[in-house]
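I hope you will forgive my troubling you with a question about protein structure. The full record is reproduced below for your convenience:

——
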Amino acid sequence: MKQLIECVPNFSEGRDPAIIKEITDVIETVEGVKLLDVDPGKATNRTVVTFVGEPEPVTEAAFRAIQKASELIDMSKHTGEHPRMGATDVCPLIPIANISMEETAEWARRLGERVGRELDLPVYLYEAAASRPERKNLAVIRAGEYEGLPEKLANPEWKPDFGPARFNARSGATAIGARDFLIAYNVNLNTTSTRRANSVAFDVRELGRVLNDPASGKPLKDATGEPLRQPGTLKGVKGIGWYIEEYGIAQISMNITDIRATPLHIAFEECCKSADRRGMRVTGSELVGLVPLNVMLEAGRYFLKKQQRSAGVSEEELIKIAVKTMGLDELAPFDPQRKIIEYNIAQDDPATAKKLIKKDLRAFANEAASESVAPGGGSISAYVGALGVSLATMVANLSSHKRGWDERWEAFSEAAERGQRLKDALLRAVDEDTDAFNAIMAAFGLPKGTPDEKAARKAAIQKATLGAIEVPLRVLRLGLDSFPLIRQMVETGNPNSITDAGVGALCARSAVMGAALNVKVNAVDLEDKTHAAKVVAEADAAMAEAGRLEGEILAIVREKMGV
């Protein structure tokens, strides 16, 4: 499987589109790199760029971008609201898939060494790539900013990890590191006061605020001479307040460095509480760069449950709730296809565009009715199963909102969430089944001239056959897992929808039966007869169980209908 890392360099230019484009153009010259997002800010005079790919092309693209920024950006003339110390201020690498943080840190070190050697720039390593503990924190490295670099570079304690300990007036210095996914997030206030925005930032950020002596107004200090602080409410959050002339409002600008400790929606809620206590109001917020899908889904569920509404709705609805509640579209439209990292990566993928589940109902039916062998019974079985559990999920959602059942909303919400998970897994199997069939066809098409070719072809056919069995096995298991939810809705759900749940049972049985047939027909070609007998036995047992469960559910439906 491919190793994927993300790179999010921050360039100290946010006002000249031509310079920004020259930098992003060199990133796109590297094959295997996908540019996901370019987010310039006029007030901060800073552009956050996001791209993704395998480690080698990503680090090559990062080097070219740093090189181009050093040619185009003159830090001696730079002004902006955001702390900065170089033309390429920071360049973090982030593990995305199939790569450890330690491996990612090693790529960051290689990049840093090359930048220092070939571009003659001072480079500091930070976070997971840091050369020493006191350099892990980016804020510590960047203290004093660009203007403080001459003094810092003259101090032996602050010798760069790579490159010369010499002030570069044009390009400054660069911090290169490896870190977990960070969310850059700004919360909008109905004030123009930077001081009041800072008061909210100090309330919520982990570092909190310095405590002052009430009598003298001077900072209180501990035994070591360090200022005493009152910690903020949010772990893993850095934040400051600033005024954005472009929008005419003040914001709390946050970096959420630990999204497990502080989810996005909790950061928003804490800012709302602090602002309200101080006589202000949060009017909206904005995401700088991209955000993982699960962050948005968690936020949507949180806000729905806060309303005592069912959270068992589609991804699209959860995202819509999150966007509207946090006002992520207040300053600019929020496009999930661009702002959510998984959607952004997938949207230009030709394979994604060809997926069966991307087709409308008519196109899907036409594809199934065409002379093409796939999609066939396996994909249809998976889709029928998805429809069946969707009906049960619908009943759960309707029941959670039924007048007079308010105290039962949470139980129905949990049922609907379970249904959504089953539905999504079955929808994925629609294309997985077709992919598995195509893999068998590809294996049969391999050359078979030499003994080695024959052996390789035979092994490929067996591997593909196992895949073509595993997908329908998963479908029949998911179909069986749907029955308890369907039965729960028949027995306890909205009585006006009892036949909908009954149809769900019919669909679930069809899905299991169809998937079992696919398991059995593909098992014939397995050379491992022990495994073949095992999966056939599971398929037979699943067919019998599905028939029994369907019969029990339909009997309850008929009894409740009085027919």
